[in-house]
Every structure is written in structure tokens, then in C-alpha cells.
């Protein structure tokens, strides 16, 4: 049978390129889990993804009700779940004030981390039950977890501190909108959310790999300087960022190439090791990358897991 893969945020950028790459193999059916249904259908058609290889299902990660509804709808569809890819993200580097999810969490961490945390928890059993030879849960990370690169060290740096802001609700009312309890900074909130993604992948691995046989992985696909992620940035940045990445840092990767990389993490038998943060070298070959100190802190991962469970109503 064909494999079934859910990809969140498949309506643009990396998610769309991955949906295209994996659907074109003819061996997979892609569930595009997107907040804007029509945009996703149009994007899939424009990318030339053949109709029998994809289904769009509504998912707004900035609402935990929507996440629960999506999980229910998927379960009732009767499809098996072989791979889940947590890819969607928002990045608000120029925001002066925080904005919030339906439940009142700061939007970047609420969407990128908490929405995906609940989704992955709700669908873990479905992955466990899959009889597919290799079942996987992938959470897209970022370079902010690599201390061995220049880009991973550009300020403001990620720092979750002792999680005091998150533990008290991340709502900007009776708590700070930042995980570490500090002042709002949109670029930092995004980086913090990506560290959460990488810590969550490892905690899933420690708690569930042996019991479920699921492979848990994360990746940094390279700098895809032309995706919608930078849509909130100032125009000059959007003009200069792609050539800067191409010619100066040489970290640039096209959407198509990045999509092929994530597709490898979905289905390549040689990338089946669990608990790994994948990266690619200049020749586009994959390797197991080292994570920064904070992004591999086991104690923090455990605490983040417990606090997140409370916030999304699982504990
Ligand atoms: P895009 O902005 O192009 O894609 C982000 C996707 O997430 C869009 O489909 C968007 O939907 C979706 N999304 C945003 N908010 C929600 C929500 N509330 N519910 C459901 N979906 C939502 O960015 P990229 O493709 O660049 O980013 C994809 C992933 O790659 C992210 O995890 C990012 O952190 C990661 N990444 C990107 C890098 C880069 O250089 N671009 C580098 C390293 C990692 P819509 O189309 O409706 O806006």
C-alpha cells in the first residue's frame, strides 16, 4: 500500500516543496494540514501534485480546538498514519507587540511548539498502530540549535531560561509572553520555539522510541531564503537576504532542494535512526549534526514536556 504522511503548513515553502517531492514518488499519499484550505488546494495544483496523491485537511495550529478537531477528523478518515511532519511555523521578527493564539499563548511559541506538541501527542497512537515498515515523527528544527555555525550565534540568541514565562501561561497578562520571562522579542520567540521543537523531538525519542518503534527526528534543511517565512520582514531584508545566503554564508538552499531533503527524512531507509538532528553538507549529503548545549539539555526537555502538557490540557 501507499504510505500516508501528514505535513503541517504544506501550503507554501518547505512544506509544499516536500509534499511535491514525496507525492511525485507515487508511493505516498500526502495529507496537507493547512489553515487556509483554498490556498493549499491552489498551491498543490500549481505545484503539479497529482490529485490522487493529496488531500487537504483544515488545521489551525494557533487554536488547540482546531488541533483536536483535526486529529478527530483524521482518525475518522480511516487512513493509517505512517509519518507525521510538524513543519508549519510563524516568524514575526519585526513585531513590536506580541500577538496571541486562541488560548492566549504568544503566537510563535503557541503555533510552532504548543500546537505541534498537542498534535503529535494526539496522533502518536496512530503512528504506533501503523504497520508500515518505517514510521516516523519529524519536527522541523532550525540552525539556531547549531552552535557550530555563525548563523546559530546571531543575536538575539534563543534562551529558554528556567521556563518561568511558559510555566505561568505565556499570555502577557499575568505572565511574560516569552518563555524565559523576559521582554517580548519576536525574533527570539521564534528561535525559542525552534529550540522547543528540537527538545521535544528528543524527549519523544527517550519516552517512546523503544515502546512504539517510531523514529523521531529533526532537521535543519539549510537556509531557504525565499520562503514565506520572511514575509513579515522589512523589504530591504527580503531583497538582500537570498544573495547574502547564496554568496556570503553559502548556506542557501532552494525550496526544491530543501523539499528533497525533508522527503529523505520521511522515507529514506538510511535515515531511519531515531533521536537524530539531520543536516546536509555542501555536497548535499546528510549527516547527524550536533545540537547546541541548550537544545540537547535533557533536564530542560523533561521540564518543557511537563509544562507543555499542562498548557495544552493533557495533564
Ligand atoms: P513558510 O512561511 O513558507 O511556510 C510556513 C507554513 O506554515 C505555511 O504553510 C503557513 O500557512 C503555515 N502556518 C503558519 N501558521 C499556521 C497555523 N497557525 N496553522 C497551520 N499552518 C500554519 O515558511 P518555511 O517553509 O520557510 O518554513 C517551514 C519550516 O521550515 C518551519 O518550521 C521553519 O522554522 C523551518 N525552517 C525554515 C528555514 C528557512 O530558511 N526558510 C530554515 C530552517 C528551518 P499559510 O500558507 O496559510 O501562511
UniProtKB/TrEMBL annotation:
One of its GO terms (molecular function) is protochlorophyllide reductase activity. It is found in: Plastid, Chloroplast. Coiled coil: none annotated. The chain holds residues 84 to 398 of 398 of the full protein. Pathway: Porphyrin-containing compound metabolism; chlorophyll biosynthesis. GO terms for biological process: chlorophyll biosynthetic process; photosynthesis. Its main location: plastid. This is NADPH-protochlorophyllide oxidoreductase. Phototransformation of protochlorophyllide (Pchlide) to chlorophyllide (Chlide). Its EC number is 1.3.1.33. It catalyses: chlorophyllide a + NADP(+) = protochlorophyllide a + NADPH + H(+). Keywords: Chlorophyll biosynthesis, Chloroplast, NADP, Oxidoreductase, Photosynthesis, Plastid, Transit peptide. Signal peptide: none annotated. Belongs to the short-chain dehydrogenases/reductases (SDR) family. POR subfamily. GO terms for cellular component: chloroplast.
Amino acid at each position: 500500500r501507499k504510505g500516508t504522511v501528514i505535513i503541517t503548513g504544506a501550503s507554501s515553502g518547505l512544506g509544499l516543496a516536500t509534499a511535491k517531492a514525496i507525492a511525485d514518488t507515487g508511493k505516498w499519499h500526502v495529507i496537507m494540514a493547512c489553515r487556509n484550505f483554498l490556498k493549499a488546494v491552489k498551491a498543490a495544483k500549481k505545484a503539479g501534485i497529482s490529485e490522487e496523491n493529496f488531500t487537504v485537511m483544515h488545521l489551525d495550529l494557533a487554536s488547540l480546538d482546531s488541533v483536536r478537531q483535526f486529529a478527530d477528523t483524521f482518525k475518522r478518515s480511516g487512513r493509517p498514519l505512517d509519518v507525521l511532519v510538524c513543519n508549519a511555523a510563524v516568524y514575526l521578527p519585526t513585531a513590536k507587540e506580541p500577538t496571541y493564539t486562541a488560548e492566549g499563548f504568544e503566537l510563535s511559541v503557541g503555533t510552532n511548539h504548543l500546537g505541534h506538541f498537542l498534535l503529535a501527542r494526539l496522533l502518536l497512537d496512530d503512528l504506533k498502530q501503523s504497520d508500515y515498515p518505517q514510521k516516523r515523527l519529524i519536527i522541523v528544527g532550525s540552525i539556531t540549535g547549531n552552535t557550530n555555525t555563525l548563523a546559530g550565534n546571531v543575536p538575539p540568541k534563543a534562551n529558554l531560561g528556567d521556563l518561568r514565562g511558559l510555566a505561568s501561561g505565556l499570555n502577557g497578562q499575568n505572565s511574560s509572553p516569552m518563555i524565559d520571562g523576559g521582554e517580548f522579542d519576536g525574533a527570539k520567540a521564534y528561535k525559542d520555539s525552534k529550540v522547543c521543537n528540537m527538545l521535544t523531538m528528543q524527549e519523544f525519542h527517550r519516552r517512546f522510541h523503544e515502546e512504539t518503534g517510531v523514529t523521531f527526528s529533526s532537521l535543519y534543511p539549510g537556509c531557504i531564503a525565499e520562503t514565506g517565512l520572511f514575509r513579515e520582514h522589512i523589504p530591504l531584508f527580503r531583497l538582500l537576504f537570498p544573495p547574502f545566503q547564496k554568496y556570503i554564508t553559502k548556506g542557501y538552499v532552494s525550496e526544491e532542494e530543501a523539499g528533497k531533503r525533508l522527503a529523505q527524512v520521511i522515507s529514506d531507509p538510511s535515515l531511519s535512526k531515531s533521536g537524530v538532528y539531520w543536516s546536509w553538507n555542501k555536497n548535499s549529503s546528510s549527516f547527524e549534526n550536533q545540537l547546541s548545549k541548550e537544545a540537547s539539555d535533557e533536564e530542560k526537555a523533561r521540564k518543557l514536556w511537563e509544562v507543555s502538557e499542562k498548557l495544552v490540557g493533557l495533564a
